[in-house]
Specification:
By secondary structure, the protein is mainly alpha-helical. The chain is built from 5 helices and no strands.
Length: 184
């Protein structure tokens, strides 16, 4: 996935390249995969998804605070949508990314009245499912982390994994700060 600064380009189907990378010792490959999984799970200086979202009261997921542009619902849905796009781009040549930026953000600041808790739970479950799928992709020794994704324009599974880990860490940090601002 390419996160644009101003305008998102449409992905073009590029001719299939060999995508072959130079052989690496299996110990280095295992160490890299383990580190990537550690980052995806929220390791190191990052908070993990479960800890950042544990116990959010449904009544505040659509609350905006002064000088902060997003609600918890907006951030969770943005993370879910972006992660889904990165995952699908990484594994599906026919995937079409949403339009930037509107396709990466929910249409509203909160789920519909009376459905907040159900929508929150469903969004969290979808996020976890896609995160697990990306972890399986990274852990699969048959997947060359360095090979160019044939339908991309230079991306690799390694790049997409680091992008996903960075993106999730950034927005999980925003959720932590938002929660502190709301004081829940």
């Amino acid at each position: 996935m390419k996160l644009p600064m101003a305008k998102r380009k449409t992905r073009k189907q590029s001719p299939k390249t060999s995508g072959e990378a130079a052989p690496r010792p299996s110990s280095q490959d295992r160490l890299l995969r383990d580190h990537l999984l550690y980052l995806l799970e929220g390791g190191g200086a990052h908070i993990n998804f479960a800890d950042a979202l544990a116990g959010w009261p449904a009544q505040v997921i659509g609350v905006k605070v002064a000088n902060f542009p997003h609600t918890a619902w907006m951030l969770l849905e943005h993370m879910r949508l972006a992660q889904w796009d990165i995952l699908e781009f990484s594994r599906n040549a026919k995937h079409v990314s949403p339009k930037w930026p509107e396709g990466y953000w929910p249409a509203s600041e909160a789920p519909p009245d009376g459905k907040a808790e159900k929508a929150w739970t469903a969004s969290m479950a979808a996020f976890k499912k896609d995160l697990h799928a990306m972890e399986k992709l990274v852990a699969d020794k048959k997947v060359d982390l360095y090979a160019h994704i044939p339908w991309g324009d230079g991306q690799t599974i390694l790049r997409e994994t680091l992008l996903l880990a960075d993106h999730n860490a950034y927005h999980l940090g925003q959720l932590v700060m938002l929660r502190k601002s709301i004081r829940t």
